[in-house]
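Hi everyone, sorry if this is the wrong subforum. Our group has a chain we'd like a structural model of before ordering constructs, and none of us has done structure prediction before. Sequence below.
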Amino acid sequence: MKNPLLSLTAAISLVALTSVAQARSAYDGYWDLLFVTQRGACDPTYNFSVSITDGVVTHPNLVKFRGYVARSGAVRASVTVHEKHASGSGRLSSNAGGGRWSGYSGSSRCSGYWTAQRN
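Answer:
Right subforum, don't worry. Here is the predicted structure as tokens:
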């Protein structure tokens, strides 16, 4: 009776450790972002840093910020700050990335591109 219980305990531990290891993302860490406005009357550039943990993109001071990175590096994110909103998508590689974004500031519609550098 001890062997089956011991085997079951070992199997559960192995599955738990494997799940934790698989949850980590190759993109985890801190990233510096640059957003450039190409169309519209929004600010010409925006700079800020984000953190990626287990594929989830977060910013400590932006409550309405959502972002996710797939295992392939495909990324999607959106942010709302007062009357400003933007959403975008793109791709990350091991240390850099980029994509497109669009949004609005008050009644102005804007769009452009973004770049990312791992720091």
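For your construct planning: Residues 1-22 have pLDDT under 50 and may be disordered. DSSP finds one helix and eight strands in the chain.
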